[in-house]
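[Q] Does anyone have a clean structure-token version of this?
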Amino acid sequence: TFVSFFGRFNYSIADKYYLQVVARTDGSSRFGANSRWGTFPSASIGWIVSEESFMENIKPISFLKLRTSWGRTGNADLDRTAQYETWAVAQGGYAGQNHRYQQQLGNPDLKWETSTIIDAALEYGILNDRISGTFSYYRKTTKDVLLQYNVQTSTGFSNVWANAGEILNHGVEFSIKSNNL
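[A] Here you go.
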């Protein structure tokens, strides 16, 4: 079961300064009682520089915008029973008796996998937007990655779900568009 609460605030000043703040709280029964809830905020700001009076005499630049954002997201993509030990009953075991055996190791300490993303960009338009594009930098750090972690096979199991990892992605993106006709 998932439950979510979401709020967003947008603000604009003179159609050239922008602010957005978002807050989201999610609850998932896939995690233990101590880690069911995750809060994931984000914020972004933007400035359309080409709307400023000091840009009026710079005719070749038709559009120029600076923007940046920061945000956190959560991931709950794991088996719905990952936090629990699971058991089964074998029929007709020793001397015809039924017996129970453990099928899966549980992990009651599982928590939300979280990603933090930072982005900064410059959007531009030149010569009445005949040439336009974006230059941006991003950095995404994911912590508490949800993985099936290998355990000693002498335990009778091969793996267990765990928050066992961290991933970093970052880079630069560049795009250019030309309207020649």
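[Q] Thanks! Anything notable?
[A] The two ends are 54 Å apart (CA to CA).
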